[in-house]
Amino acid sequence: MSSEPLVTHIFTADPSAHVFNGRIYVYPSHDIATPIQDNDNGDQYAMTDYHVLSMDAVGSPVTDHGVVLSLEDVPWAGKQLWAPDAAEKNGKFYLFFPARDTEGVFRIGVAVGDKPEGPFKPEEKPIEGSYSIDPASFVDEDGEAYLYFGGIWGGQLQCWTTGKFDKEAYTNMEAQSGPALLPRVAKLSSDMLSFTSPPTELEILDPVTKKPLDSSDHDRRFFEAAWMHKYNGKYYFSYSTGDTHYLAYAVGDSPVGPFTYGGKILEPVQGWTTHHSIVEHDGRWWLFHHDTSMSGKNHLRCVKVREIFYDKEGKIVLTPE
Length: 321
Ligand code: FUB
Prior knowledge:
The chain is mainly β. It is 0% helix and 42% strand.
C-alpha cells in the first residue's frame, strides 16, 4: 500500500487529505512537465491547475474529478499553483492555494465550491495579509478555523521578517544562526475568506531546552509543508525540513502553539521535496505523501499513502507497538 502511486495517469504531489461525508478527498498539486531546469527557487514547479481525487477508503478505486480550478481563472495569479488545501464549513467547501502574483510574490488565495470535489470559484484577490506558500487549513472541534502557511527559500518566507516583502532577502534563503524562521498561523473569519488578524509565528521549541529551534538545526527546523491534525486532545503540527528531507512534527496544547518538537515521521523519500498530510478514516490514521518514483524527476511527483500509528506516549510511529 505504501509503495504504489495513488494515480498514474497524471503527476500529483503535496497531497492534502480530508474526510468529507465519510469519503476521503485528496487535494494535490498537479505536476507538469517543463523545460525549466531545477533551481532553489523551485521555478521548475510550474503548475497551472488543480485536480481533486477521492476514494471510499484507502485501497479502493480512486476517482479523479478532473480540473477544479485553473490558473487562467484566478484574476490575481501569475504563475505556479503550488500545494493547496481544502476545508468545509457550514456546507461550503474552500480551496486554499498559493501562487505567485503578477509581481512574482507568493500570496494565498481562496476559491469556494458547493461540493468537496469542486469546481471552485476563486475570489478576485488573494487573502489580505497572506504571503508565502503551502496553506493548510484546520477547523477545530469548536468550529474555529485556522490557516497555517509558510515556506523558506523559493517559498519566500525569509522575505517577510519585517512585515513587508523584502526582495533582497530572497537570495539569502535563510540565516545560518539564530532562531529558525517560523511557520505562520492566522485565524480565519467565519466566512473563511479572510484573516481575523495578522498572521503570527508558530513557535517550535526544543523538548529539553524549551528554547526555539536554531536556524542551523536543519534536521529539525521548519522549512515548508505545514499540516495540522488533532489526536487525543493534542495538536500535532507537522512539516518538511526541506534540505534535509524529513517529515517532522511538534505537539502542542493549542492550535496556535507553542509546540514542542516531537520527532520524525518519515525519512527522506526519492526526490528533493517531501510533503504530506495526516487524516483519520474509520478509526485508522493515514499519511499521504509523495515521491518521484514514477518519473525520477524532482518536479514530476506521485502521491502515495501509508498507515501511521501512535505509541503509548502519543508519538507518531510507522509500525504499531
Ligand atoms: O509543489 C511545489 C512545492 O514543492 C510545494 O509548495 C512544497 O511544499 C514542495 O512540495
